[in-house]
Design brief:
Elements: E1 11-13, E2 19-20, E3 36-38, H1 76-82, E4 91-96, H2 102-115, E5 120-124, H3 129-138, E6 146-150, H4 154-164, E7 168-172, H5 189-206, E8 210-214, H6 227-231, E9 234-239, E10 246-254, E11 262-268, E12 271-274, H7 279-282, E13 293-300, E14 303-315, E15 323-326, H8 330-343, E16 351-357, H9 369-381, E17 389-391, E18 394-395, E19 401-402, H10 407-416, E20 421-425, E21 438-442, H11 445-452
Parallel strand pairs: 4-8, 4-9, 5-6, 5-7, 7-8, 15-16, 17-20, 20-21
Antiparallel strand pairs: 1-2, 1-3, 9-10, 10-11, 11-12, 13-14, 14-16, 18-19
Helix pairs in contact: 8-9, 9-11
């Protein structure tokens, strides 16, 4: 008697792809809960058969590029991150913590698109139509071209798309929509997958640029299955400190442009504004030339951004001196303190040390090591860093100043901001100084301290590079 092969359902994790014969609540590979779903695999072979194509394959030179031309949104920093504007049919996932300003940014983009003659469909699943209207009135986004729909049913949203035929679609947020054809509550793995696939299909078939708002988890990653990030064309992260008006928009994934661009925004009373030159947000303007401060030029993606590091070193009354940091990694500060003590002869082991940045900036790259060390040395010696001076360079445990990437771009930005002297690594022999700027190449941290913190009785300045 011939035996028939039974079909095994099979289960697969949507996060990492781990497979199992039977369903389990927790993935055995990535340990994520609720991500194992039925894969529908068959032991008898693939179930999908060849069908007639919708249109024949076209030689790539014959494909029209006019249908994929970018269209500017009118928000310069948003266009910068997207690579120049919205591409027809592109699906953008905008993620960020609650209250960071995602809805405000989308309403601003929607209003600008409506003023240019486009019809925009704004779907709100988290707030009522009245709440969205109040926000639009506050930021000056009351435009008749913006069609507002407060819906949580996916079928109703698709019906709105068919009837409105918008040129731009915005959904706030994808975790609030649910399909009646899928089991589970809104925000679940199956629901989020179905909502994302349906909206992406609608956007691709109609050529509608679509922006989807996504929630984030406690660790800052996009909530829901990672499959959503793979399906969409662009993934943007909207970041900002709770007590700061500065907001940074960075792209994690971009099929139409670079992922190295960063957009700067500032929350104001009447909405959100693009900050084309964020230098003033990260540098103090009180005019005081005091000890314990030093400026540097960081690189966020491809964009050079200034940062001012402030330090305070004071005698400690505790057996275990205090170390407090804000905007800078505490482990990095401890390492620089050890290098200063061992290689530059500055004893700080018995002192309380406080380090902070201006304007809520977060400094994470090693290129700010020299500026951090100079700010600490300036606070310890109670002598200010040379006026109009910035510092760029990485500090090794040996006390050597190591080279950094994109040094020419950093130096050019420092010169544009008005810095007259810049401490750079000694290996920067290929970097040309802008007009009116002197470069001070140093090979060790002790040499950098000597250049940036001249003794009071010494009047001769170091020779420029």
């Amino acid at each position: 008697m011939a035996t028939t092969r039974r079909t095994a359902p099979g289960y697969r994790c949507t996060e990492c792809g781990w497979s199992a014969v039977k369903w389990v609540g927790r993935c055995g590979e990535c340990q994520a809960w609720g991500t194992v779903v039925e894969a529908g695999a068959s032991a008898a072979g693939p179930a999908t058969k060849a069908t007639a194509p919708t249109r024949p394959a076209t030689p790539i030179p014959d494909v029209s590029a006019e249908s994929s031309q970018r269209r500017a949104t009118g928000v310069g920093e948003f266009d910068r991150v997207l690579g120049g504007g919205l591409v027809p049919g592109a699906v953008i996932l905008l993620a960020g913590e609650p209250g960071v300003g995602k809805s405000t940014l989308l309403l601003d983009v929607a209003a600008r698109a409506a003023r240019s003659g486009d019809r925009v469909l704004y779907v709100s699943g988290e707030e009522s139509a009245g709440q969205v209207r109040l926000r639009a009135e506050r930021i000056g986004a009351l435009e008749r071209g913006v069609l507002l729909a407060a819906e949580t049913d996916l079928g109703a949203v698709l019906s709105h798309i068919d009837s409105a035929q918008p040129q731009l679609l915005m959904v706030d947020s994808i975790q609030t929509l649910a399909s009646a054809e899928i089991d589970g509550t809104a925000g679940g793995v199956g629901q989020v997958r179905e909502v994302a696939q349906s909206l992406i299909q609608a956007a691709k078939t109609r050529g509608i640029p679509t922006v989807l708002v996504g929630h984030v988890t406690k660790d800052g990653s996009v909530a829901g299955p990672r499959l959503v990030e793979h399906l969409v064309d662009v993934v943007c992260q909207f970041e900002g400190e709770q007590h700061s008006a500065l907001r940074l928009l960075r792209s994690i994934k971009n099929r139409f442009g670079s992922v190295d661009e960063v957009g700067c925004f500032q929350l104001v009373d009447d909405g959100i504004e693009s900050v084309t030159d964020p230098s003033g947000l990260f540098l103090s303007h009180d005019g005081a030339h005091v000890p314990g401060t030093c400026a540097t030029i960081t690189l966020d993606g491809k964009r050079p951004l200034p940062a001012e590091i402030q330090a305070l070193v004071a005698p400690s009354a505790l057996s275990n001196p205090r170390r407090a940091t804000s905007g800078i990694d505490g482990a990095r500060v401890s390492m620089i303190l050890a290098v200063l003590h061992r290689r530059a002869g500055l004893a700080v082991a018995a002192d309380d040390v406080y380090v902070s940045t201006i304007g809520g900036a977060r400094v994470t790259e090693p290129a700010a090591d020299v500026a951090l060390a100079l700010a600490l040395a300036s606070a310890r010696l109670d002598r200010p860093v040379r006026q109009h001076m910035a510092a760029v360079g990485e500090v090794a445990l040996s006390g050597a100043v190591r080279p950094v990437s994109a040094l020419s771009q950093r130096v050019a930005e420092a010169g544009r901001l008005g810095f007259k002297d810049i401490v750079v690594p000694a290996s920067a022999t290929h970097v040309a100084a802008p007009a009116g700027v002197r470069l001070h190449p140093v090979s060790t941290l002790a040499e950098a301290v000597h250049v940036a913190l001249p003794a009071e009785d010494r009047t001769a300045a170091p020779a420029p590079f």
